[in-house]
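Re: the request from the purification team.
They wanted to know what the chain is likely to look like in 3D before they choose a buffer screen. I agreed to run a prediction and write the result into the notebook, where they can find it.
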Amino acid sequence: MTEAERIVIIGASLAGARAADFLRREGWTGQIVLIGAEPELPYERPPLSKSVLTGKDEPGVAQLHDQAWYDERNIELRLGTEATAIDTAGRKVTVADGTEVEYDKLLIATGSRVRKLDVPGADLAGVHYLRTAAESKALTDAYAAKPRVVVVGAGWIGLESASAARQRGCEVTIVEPQSTALASVLGEQIGNLYAELHRSHGVDLRFNTGVEALEGDDKVTGVRLTGGEVLPADLVVVGVGVQPNTELAEAAGIEVAGRDQGSGILTGPDLQTSVPGVYAAGDVVRWDHPVLGHSIRVEHWQNAMDSGKAAAKAMLGQDVAQDALPYFFSDQYDLTMEYVGDVPRGTSYQIVLRGDPASGAYMAFWLAEDNHVLAGMQVNSGWDVIDPVKQLIRSKKPVDPERLADTAVELSEI
C-alpha cells in the first residue's frame, strides 16, 4: 500500500483502535479513518463491569487514549457517526448523514450488542443493561441508592453485576433458567462453585427459573417468575448475552455465519473476509483457528486486543495467522480468575481440579477424551500460572490426570 491510500475502520472499539495503533507501529503512513457510532473516545469494557461498577474507579479509567494521542498519529476519528452501508464494489462506506468515505482496505470491528429481554415490562425505567460506558455510568449511579436488585442471567456480566451490587450494599437476587451459574460456559461442577461464592456473599439464587414479566407502571417494581412468584425490585440488571453486529457486512454481501453456526463474519486465519481487501476483528469475527482446528468467535477483551493487531498486520500484507488462544478474566468479590482455551459445545470432557476449591485458590482443567487439555482456569493462584496452561493446550498432547491434579508436580513438568 502507498501513502496515498486509505484504510477505513468501522467501529471505534478496542479492536478498531488497536488496529489503528498497530498500523502506525508497523510504519504505515497512509490515511486511517476510524468511524464509531458512540460519541466517546475508544475505550475498553472490562473496567465497566468491575472497578467502575464497584465505585472504585471513574468511567474515564476505561478510555484507551486521549484525543491528542490520535492527533499525534494522524488517525482521523469520526465519533457519534454510524456507518449505514458498505459498497464493496465501489470501495466506500456510507454514514448516517449520507456522506461516503472511500477506502482502499476496510476493517469491520462493529462488535456486538446486548440481547434484550423479551417480556412484558422490559422497557420500564429501572431496567438496565451493561455494555457501553454510558450504561456502566447509569448503573453505577443507580447502585449508590442501595436498591433491591434483581439480576436476570447468571453469566459473566450477571455475576459481575451482582458482585458489584453486593459490594455496594444492595440486596441482590439472581434469576437464571439454567441449573447453575455459568453452566453453558464452565459446566455444572465449576458453575456450582461460582454459585456458592455468591450465596456466601448473601445473594439469593433462583436457578431453573425464567422471567415471565417485569411489573410496574412507569418504573419497575417487581419481577414475575415463571412459577408466578413476584420478586420485589427497585432495579433490574439484564445479562442474557450479546449478539454480533453482522448486519452491515451481511447487507454488503460479505459471508456471515448463521446462528446455527455460531454467528459472526466468516474469515480465514488472516481475518480477511470473503471479499478481498475487507477484514474483520473483535467480537464480530468468526475465524478459522489454526491451533484449535475449528472456527471460533470470542467475545472477550483479549480477542479484541489480539485480533486488532493481527488484522492491522494482515492489511499491510504481512503473513499473519490469528492463533491466539481465547482468554478472559473475571473479578468477583475477593475472587480473581483467568481462563484460557476453548471447549466447544457438545464436547465430551472431564474436569481435573488442582488444589482445593474450599481454600479459595485452585485450578481447573478441561480434558478431552484422549486427555489432552482443552482449557484451563486459575482462581486466586497468581497471574504467572496461565502461561504453562497455554503451553499444555497448544501441545495437544495427552496428560496424566493424576499428575495434573498433584500440586507437588510443577505444571512445566507435565
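For the purification team: The longest strand covers residues 335-341.
Please add any questions underneath this entry.
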